[in-house]
Specification:
Archaeosine Trna-guanine Transglycosylase, Chain: A, domain 4, Methane Monooxygenase Hydroxylase, Chain G, domain 1, 5-stranded mixed beta barrel, about 20% strand, alpha/beta, binds adenosine-5'-diphosphate, about 775 residues, 7-stranded mixed sheet
């Protein structure tokens, strides 16, 4: 075969490899290349194009340029702005650079034309290879996604194997070295094999890329999916008009927030939560929680307050008008108001109204609120065991709500109400924290201007609240709380007091509640006393009030049924309404007796007389105690017994009585269990009377604790006990000397009837109670 050499201008290409049959345009900017191009145009419009080894080399020399390249026909030249020329070329044949003829002003080279072999048989040789290549190329086109599908059709029409290999090579996205390698395959079969190998490799890579791509895409997809769903939800809500609702709701809240006079921190929090609500969507569970919280914020009286009535005279009038008696409480409130008027400050101890049930603690507190012109809220602490009940649960709890203090403030509707903490002595504690600790903070005027509820997470100012507490007895009030309180005792009422309360307050109140005019039902005074003495037994007037209500209802029914205009309630009516007397009181014996002493007891229901009996019988010194006696009372009996043994001579008792006699003390049960040390003196008196066979005066009652040395110690509930003695018709009452100061509190009606004897030791008691004592 003749070898064909040609002399042509050379243009080195950067990053491009051009194959025969390939049509391509590229820009030429280097001066040397432009000159080469111009030369080519002047001659046969052919140029030898070959790649430079490194695309970045600016001025390539011989060694920087590949030797194998392609002779191309120049099809078109286009001048671009700024000395650049765009050239359109078509590859013609491979050629190998043999010699540089000149290098300046442009490369001129001698190349050997490398035509494909002539004796290659298209039909036989490498058919299998070609098929495999076509199949692979199909797949490659699919996978790569950036080769037009028509290419495949074009390729089908090519039956020249060499040309096919070159055309495919020109489509492949390969690195330059790889392309150069393909270009340097002069043998058709070798070229085909290489193309197939490259194709297979590329397909693998593309598949791998796709796999990775899918994974990455999956990840991105999830985010996109969520976004998409959310957008869809929005669209659905919009369709359903919910979005509108939502917007309206936002607007409503916003309005409310700006109208409510909230402190800055509270307002910021409210707006923050509103913003959260906007993003959560109002139909989600979270939305519900936020909404409830916002409602709480908006309903609390952060800045609303009532104006105090500082008119002392009108306050006094209100207090007097609404309650009978209770002088101490009323005086203390007037004092409090006066101080406030002078100093404009409300600091000071918390008032604690202490007394048995039904004596009007709650209702006087209500009256105080009325007199002060403050709103009133009441919260019972009975049975509160958990700190969270006072201070609330954190919002993260399901169904969390604020504690009772904040709840009460919401009910109060002003930030300066009168807040009644009822039954503070009935609070207890367990593992969930001590509610008393939380209450301490509430009641402490130094701290309570920033009370923080767990649910609200905002400071609430309680410093303007007037707290009043109530208790039945002070013994059970937690000590630190007790230290902050000023106790005002509200003791039980005498029958006379109850009578007044009943006639002047309870009856008019009940008549009014039942819509009856004053003169339509008239309850006689003796009926009122009957109800007080024989149908109720209590320190307060709660049952009495219920009885009155019942009397009035029955009377109304009678008026209706029998068409009467008026009903008079008399003793017989009371009996017909309620049956026989329910409670009777011990009346004193008519005569003095041995071993029978009238003691006095004080229970939650008020005072009562307590007859104590003792008897001595031959035996060997046993002391028997019967009746419903508590442990303290039993011990007290034993102490008295020992005292008598030690001082037998003094009282005309045989000194070895404890060897010869058994003693039995009995306290008749009565309705209520009794306990406490205050029956001590009565039991000693009964025992001495029984042992010495001297009678006890029947008109004397006594109370007092006894010690082993015979001293008489003070007792509680003097007023109630005195009332009981008075009711029973006693005329002399022996009380411990240390209780003298309490006599002041005894109503005059009682004091005038009773002769009080003060005893500091048992001798005084015996002198005054045992007849013919000497
Ligand atoms: P407490 O709180 O001490 O248990 P309440 O305040 O519930 O007692 O009183 C029971 C009822 O007795 C109320 O209707 C109250 O108005 C009435 N009451 C009690 N004491 C008086 C009083 N001194 N004057 C008028 N009403 C009274």
């Amino acid at each position: 075969m003749d070898r064909d050499f040609r002399e042509l201008p050379l243009i080195p290409l950067r990053g491009i490899t051009i194959f025969p049959y390939m049509v391509l345009h590229f820009d030429v900017g280097r001066e040397k290349s432009i000159l080469a191009l111009e030369k080519a145009m002047l001659e046969e419009q052919k140029v030898f194009l070959t790649a430079q080894r490194q695309a970045k080399t600016e001025e390539p020399g011989r060694e920087d340029i590949f030797k194998t390249g392609t002779i191309c026909n120049i099809k078109q030249i286009l001048k671009l702005p700024g000395d650049t020329v765009r050239v359109l070329v078509e590859g013609e044949t491979r050629a190998l650079l043999k010699e540089y003829i000149s290098e300046e002003p442009f490369f001129k080279v001698k190349v050997e034309v490398l035509e494909d072999e002539e004796n290659y048989d298209e039909n036989k040789d490498c058919e299998a290879l070609v098929r495999a290549i076509k199949k692979n190329f199909n797949e490659y086109v699919k996978l790569s996604g950036n080769i037009p599908a028509e290419t495949i059709i074009t390729l089908d029409e090519i039956d020249n194997h060499g040309r096919l290999a070159d055309t495919i090579s020109s489509y492949l996205m390969l690195k330059q070295e790889k392309k150069q390698e393909l270009l340097e395959c002069y043998e058709i079969e070798e070229r085909l094999q290489k193309v197939l190998a490259v194709l297979a490799n590329e397909i693998e890579i593309l598949k791998l890329e796709r796999k990775i791509g899918v994974k990455v895409k999956n990840k991105i997809d999830k985010v996109q999916k969520d976004y998409y769903l959310r957008e869809q939800l929005k669209a659905i809500q919009e369709e359903l008009g919910e979005d509108d609702d939502n917007k309206k709701e936002m607007k409503r809240y916003k309005n409310k927030i700006s109208k409510a006079k909230l402190p800055k921190a509270v307002k910021d929090k409210a707006l923050y939560e509103l913003d959260r609500l906007k993003n959560t969507g109002s139909y989600s569970a979270e939305g519900g929680v936020i909404r409830t919280y916002l409602d709480w914020i908006l309903e609390l009286p952060w800045n609303t307050q009532t104006k105090d009535n500082l008119d002392i005279k009108s306050a006094r009038e209100i207090l007097e008008k609404e309650h009978y008696g209770l002088k101490d409480v009323k005086d203390r409130i007037i004092e409090y108001l006066s101080v406030k008027k002078m100093s404009k400050s409300l600091k000071g101890p918390i008032l604690c109204l202490m007394g048995p049930p039904g004596v009007g603690k709650t209702s006087i507190a209500k009256s105080i609120a009325h007199a002060l012109n403050r709103n009133f809220v009441r919260m019972s602490l009975g049975g509160v065991r958990d700190e969270a009940e006072i201070r609330g649960h954190r919002k993260t709890y399901v169904g969390a709500i604020p504690g009772r203090i904040i709840y009460g403030m919401k009910q109060a509707k002003s930030k300066n109400p009168l807040f009644l903490l009822d039954e503070i002595d009935k609070m207890s504690n367990d593992f969930r924290g001590d509610p008393a600790d939380a209450l301490l903070e509430v009641l402490d005027s130094e701290q309570n201007n920033s009370f923080r509820d767990h649910y609200m997470e905002l400071d609430f100012d309680l410093s303007n609240v007037m707290f009043i507490t109530t208790a039945n007895s002070i013994g059970n009030i937690p000590r630190p709380l007790f230290d902050r309180m000023e106790v005002i005792e509200v003791s039980g009422y005498t029958s006379e007091e109850k009578f007044h309360i009943c006639r002047e307050y309870l009856i008019p109140k009940q008549l009014e509640e039942n819509g009856i005019k004053n003169n339509e039902i008239i309850i006689s005074d003796s009926s009122i006393y009957k109800l007080i003495d024989n149908y109720t037994r209590e320190s307060g007037v709660r049952s009495l009030e219920r009885r009155i209500a019942s009397v009035i209802r029955k009377a109304v029914a009678e008026m209706m049924e029998k068409d009467k205009k008026k009903v008079n309630i008399t003793l017989t009516k009371i009996k017909s309404y309620f049956g026989a007397e329910i409670y009777t009181y011990d009346k004193i014996d008519k005569e003095d007796k041995i071993g029978v002493v009238m003691g006095m007891a004080w229970t939650g229901y008020g005072g009562d007389t307590l007859p104590i009996e003792a008897t001595a019988m031959s035996g060997n010194g046993k002391l028997e105690l019967t009746g419903q006696l508590g442990a303290v009372m039993k011990e007290s009996a034993k102490a008295g017994y020992s005292y008598i043994r030690a001082n037998a001579d003094k009282y005309g008792v045989e000194s070895d009585f404890y060897k010869k006699y058994d003693l039995h003390i009995h306290v008749p049960e009565g309705a209520v269990p009794k306990d406490g040390p205050s029956a001590g003196v009565a039991m000693v008196t009964a025992m001495i009377s029984a042992l010495s066979k001297k009678k006890v005066k029947h008109n004397v009652a006594m109370t007092g604790e006894i010690t082993l040395t015979g001293r008489v110690l003070p007792i509680g509930g003097l007023k109630e006990k005195s009332l009981a003695a008075y009711r029973a018709g006693i005329d002399t009452v022996i009380i411990p000397k240390d209780n003298e100061k309490h006599l002041l509190k005894i109503p005059n009606t009682v004091k005038n009837k009773l002769n009080y004897i003060l005893a500091d030791n048992i001798d005084v008691v015996l002198e005054n109670s045992i007849s013919n004592y000497s």
